[in-house]
User: Fold this.
Amino acid sequence: MKVLKFGGTSVGTVKNMQHVKDIITDGTKKIVVLSAMSGTTNTLVSIASDIFNKTPNQAVDTINKMHESYFVVIDELLVDDSFNSDVKNYATEIFNFLLEATYLEYSKNLENKILAQGELLSTYMFNAYLKQEGISSSLLPALDFMRINSAKEPDLVSIKEKFGGVLETTPESDIYITQGFICLDENDDVSNLQRGGSDYTATIIGAVIHAEEVQIWTDIDGMHNNDPRFVENTHPISNLSFDEAAELAYFGAKILHPQTVLPVREDGIPVRLKNTMDPAADGTLISSDTSENGIKAIAAKDNITAIKIKSGRMLQAYGFLKKVFEVFETYETSIDMITTSEVAVSLTIDDDKNLDRIVSELEKIASIEVDKNQTIVCLVGHSIVSHDSTFKLFQILQDVKIRMISYGGSRNNISLLINSNDKITTLNKLNDYLFELVTL
Ligand code: ASP
Assistant:
């Protein structure tokens, strides 16, 4: 069986939902994972932050507007009276829950429950639509099987067992629809797989059912070789290995949630990225195939903070790096890039929530310099570190100020840290020369 995930824009309008219906009704049984309609999760985040900021009237306004716009969609999508009123009743319960939430004290649990409503709405609505169109479909409630543990990792053993149970008790159908993103945590509270996490839901399900393939349907025709928002002449990459895709997703290629390929990599279950608006386009196939060498793609990740930790006296001593890493562990902050010299260590983080506390801890053992507004530019390709064209890099970037460079951490990645102001120029230069649109 295949698992197909459709993102926010794919279910963002009635027309797009009709496209999704055409794509999934090819006569084969499948599991369909849906995101919330585009914009909905952002709106829910704003409702939660109004509750946090004690501006409930603003939240109530937003909820009423959301209610109205959902009813417009429901009227357009569900022309059959009984489906129409059933979905309106369900949606009204959700909007009532949100209105009640505006009277409550903010808590992370409340926020997570609020954020879960988008996927609950989209799946309920879409399932009713398929039934109205005479298609055999059933809902598999994600909260009945999707679970993360205390380390916020998917609990694959429990998911597998529970998913089997849910499937057994669900009426036999051609299409099984479930919510992306949402899950329970180790205390059985509603939680989620982080923003964009519906991709992750799809590959987790793919792994537990040992799917034939996982397809991620978005509004772009695959993973591009550079960021199309900043660079012209990019093109979709037809094949990527799991490692290449993981590096790209982590370092900024927005099309995939960073953890997406992890659950399926070990079993070699292919992941295909496809475009709902252009289903005939090839898209990108992510698989175990590592036969192509050389630079395949460039991605950039913004909002990076670089921290330089300088201590000539301590660096040569055993255990200095251990002390440094312990500080980051204490504040649950992961490190992206790291470079060392005899007298200093530079590293980067993208989550600067605890920066002040991290810096004051580090100041006990070394002198610290912090640079904000940095960007990681990441070059990815199988065996990129030994490919001929890689050595042009320094020539190409001779006018760009590089703050850090990471080479050899893996064979498939070279990362550069630059000032964010230089990002667009750097991406364009690399694009022109590395992909040989212009020769040096
Ligand atoms: N709806 C969630 C978000 O907007 C999850 C997803 O779309 O993947 O982040």
In short: DSSP finds 14 helices and 16 strands in the chain. The chain has a mean pLDDT of 93. The radius of gyration is 24 Å.
